[in-house]
Amino acid sequence: MFTAKYLSIALFFLLLSIADPQIHAAPAKAVSSNTGHTAQHQPLVMKTAVLAALKKHPMSSLGVAHRQVGEAYRSQANALFAGDPSYNISYRSDQIDSDQGYREFAGSLDFPIWLFGQKNARYQLANRLISKADAEQLLLAWQVSGVVLERAWDLRIAQMEVEQARVQQQATKKLEADVKRRVQAGEIARADLLLAQQSTVQRKLAFQQAVAKLAKARNAWKAYTGFNQLPVDLLKQSHVKRSTHDKHPHNIAAQARIKAAQARREDVGKQRRANPVLSFYVKRDRAIDRDPFNNSLGLGISIPFGTKTSSAPRLAEANARVAELMAKEAEREREHELETSQAKLAVQQTRKTLSLAKTQHQLAQQRWKLSKRAFELGESDLFQLILAREQADIQSRHLRRSQLELSLSQARLNHILGAMPL
Description:
The chain is built from nine helices and four strands; from the N terminus they run H-H-H-H-E-E-H-H-H-E-E-H-H. The chain is an alpha+beta fold.
């Protein structure tokens, strides 16, 4: 049984495919690839980004097509007869032989009828196929939300790299200006100015590389979602409520596939022989010219003899399909357990890394302050100052990245456990 949340996702796909193009005009403004801004400048949230990515995903339309297959089986199960009725007409005479006036006009209506249990089996198959289509759309939504999450965090980390590179570049320019002033005052050698200028160029190059990486991440984000900006609730994805095992999209889809295959196997089992045919006859005939025509009505039924050999291949294939899906689900469960344990280890490792990064950052800042003071007092040269500053910058960037990576690892773990912002 699906929860209301999962049914709403399935309904979203259904409405998305059958809605009039004019109806889509309004949402299109909210997911414009040209502006990348939400309608009426509302802040972007993860749910909006995921739905926009789903709308653009080439597989999103398959859910409706698969659902229509189930609806077709349901329509067939609701039919009065097991197949299409047929009308037969025949004429017989003795004109090419004795020609004594024998004439016979006959017609019949044939109606294939359901065997016991066939109608219910077909109806159950229809329901299972519809549930399977909805479950697979839910799985697609979960998979897309995972890609959205990864690309959002790639962009956020790239933004952090640019912010850090900009601050470091500005600090280097400030140091260069101070060194230049002291060179002009004759306090230090001109070689120190060249060293400061070289450091400034290096920081400028690092900033340009960070900007290029940011542009690449932003382009990937926009290509997938249609937006330029990041969701305002990105950091909250590290603390979202996780799904239980039974409600995990992968588990729901796998169980729906297995149940659909079992329903098809049951349907094949009910089709071991052809359907009986109920026939209504009408006949008008005479024996010779002098006799009047006689009219008669008749009722008949044709019951085929079912043999196991005729349906054995189809039944064996249905059984094999069920076994195959169950084996795949067992294998997926093993992979899921491994992914979960690795994600938990990643969270633990990033926590330890963050703790060490904080310590390294504090030590690097202390060294930078001491080196700066020593340089100002003339107790240390510029090279030692630049080296201390570079170490401080590296540790500052490492600390900020470790903080973001901890949030990312927690968000990844939540996603692996079935969470998604829908």
